[in-house]
Design a protein that fits this description.
483 residues; mainly alpha; Sodium/glucose cotransporter; 77% helix; globular; transmembrane helix; transmembrane; membrane
Length: 483
């Protein structure tokens, strides 16, 4: 048996296991739309935990953080910092989303905004933002998956073939089983990712340098700039990117079905208390990236740093296990994104064309959307690749434009659909101008946060000059905000 055969079999074996588990979770079930998109609102702590952990810690976390650690050094530490802000916000915000889902039957992110502002037009805007800016995030997962399968199989499977195989596998089990299938596969995926991070990746600096302190001593000699924040990613960029990511964390469409899916509020709160434990798995990933940088190795693509660290440290068969874990990281997030976008396309956009669509028809539309959006993301990953962290931050810049409307709408009675919509549009125009025309971050502050600042100003001004919709606010408050 050749040295490439074992890693290849390990990767393909894990892919096949994921497919079987995902399909078996729903193959004999007849899903309602609620059952398909939010698993019937019956997820207990274990399934909810692995579902959210798998959604959050993705190909970006597994490859992108290591790639940026290899390329730039300390600026990647924002990825550790923003989690504290995100989870603190999520602990308080998620309860309102869950209550809205329970009270009004919400199954998508756009549903939440529709019931708060009583506006189908605003729901359409939210759905379009979610789809347009989350497609790059889905593309990110597929690119990472392609890298992983290629390197994990020691080149036996090309990057392009890895992208196609991974997307087809995910489309099959998401199409078949919805959120239930994703939660079942994530039980496997999250477990493998966590074990590999701490049992394999964390040991790399010790095997290469004898310890973490020696790693940083070597890095200080070979690449001293890696240990400081330097232009164009200095203090302003670091802080603004941390804030942007922390605020935008729970604006992603895939977070909402997971929250709706919780069995009760107690389960949801416990989940957010425990999630930070899983988040520390990024530390070994970053250390692996630093290791490759300290060794002075040259890579064809920086996002391959983590897999290169494994390749030079362990026997080839270990690379197969890490490749399987990387596939798990990408697939767990990509599948959740795919389902949430399919929900937006069917529930909030298809119903414009056919307002009286039956529940059964919406399930069919959701499944068709899985295939359409999955194919689109696959083509983008194949023909318009980009750096993983860059794609992630582009997605965050767009998603975070929903933050002012989401938060102000909870407590400020003057907030109405006009203020929410105007703020989002102003923020999107701002980030588009800065990204495509100016092509810079003014004062070193991330362009996405400039968008949020303009968004907040416009939101407040429009809310103050338009008539408040107090009846709509009171109805929402009684069901969602009031204890």
């Amino acid at each position: 048996m050749s040295s490439a055969t074992v890693p290849l079999l390990l990767v393909l074996g894990w892919v096949l296991l994921s497919l079987i588990v995902g399909v078996m979770a729903g193959i004999k079930r007849k899903f309602t739309l609620e059952g398909y998109l939010v698993s019937g609102r019956g997820l207990g702590l274990i399934f909810l935990y692995v579902l959210m952990a798998g959604e959050i810690y993705s190909a970006y976390a597994f490859l992108g953080t290591g790639g940026w650690a290899y390329s730039y050094g300390m600026p990647i530490m924002y990825a550790i910092g923003y989690g504290a802000l995100a989870y603190s916000f999520g602990y308080f915000y998620a309860r309102y989303v869950w209550k809205a889902g329970k009270a009004f039957g919400c199954v998508t992110q756009a549903d939440y905004f529709q019931v708060r502002y009583n506006s189908k037009t605003l729901a359409v805007i939210v759905a379009l933002i979610g789809i347009i800016f989350n497609i790059p995030y889905l593309q990110l997962q597929l690119q990472g998956l392609g890298y992983i399968v290629n390197v994990g199989s020691l080149g036996s499977i090309s990057t392009r073939a890895g992208i196609i195989i991974g997307m087809v596998i995910m489309m099959i089990y998401v199409y078949t089983s919805g959120l239930r299938g994703i939660s079942w596969t994530n039980l496997l995926q999250a477990t493998l990712m966590f074990i590999v991070a701490w049992a394999v990746l964390f040991a790399i600096p010790f095997k290469q340098f004898g310890g973490i302190s020696e790693l940083f001593k070597t890095l200080a000699q070979t690449k001293p700039d890696h240990l400081i924040l330097h232009p164009p990613m200095g203090i302003a960029w670091y802080v603004s990117t941390l804030i942007l990511s922390g605020l935008g964390f729970f604006m992603y469409p895939q977070m909402y079905p997971s929250i709706y899916g919780a069995r009760d509020l107690k389960t949801l709160k416990r989940n957010y208390v425990l999630l930070p434990i899983y988040s520390i798995f990024m530390i070994p990933v970053i250390l692996a990236g630093f290791t490759v940088a300290a060794l002075g190795l040259k890579l064809g693509a920086p996002d391959e740093a983590v897999l290169k660290a494994v390749e030079i440290t362990y026997p080839s068969w270990v690379l197969g296990i890490v490749g399987a874990a990387g596939f798990a990281a990408a697939a767990s997030t990509a599948s959740a994104i795919l389902l949430s976008l399919a929900g937006l396309l069917s529930k909030n956009l298809y119903t414009i064309v056919k307002p009286n669509a039956s529940d059964k028809e919406l399930v069919i539309a959701s499944r068709a959307s899985v295939v359409i959006l999955g194919t689109l993301a696959m083509l983008l990953a194949l023909y318009t690749p980009g750096r993983l962290v860059s794609l992630l931050l582009l997605a965050y810049a767009g998603m975070t434009q929903m933050f002012p409307a989401a938060v102000f709408g909870l407590f400020w009675k003057r907030m109405n659909k006009y203020a929410a919509g105007a703020g989002m549009i102003a923020g999107l125009i701002t980030i588009t101008y800065l990204r495509l025309v100016l092509k810079t971050n003014p004062l070193g502050i991330h362009f996405g946060l400039w968008g949020v600042l303009v968004n907040v100003i416009v939101t407040v001004v429009v809310a103050l000059v338009t008539k408040p919709e107090e009846e709509i606010f009171q109805k929402f408050k009684e069901a969602v905000v009031s204890l």
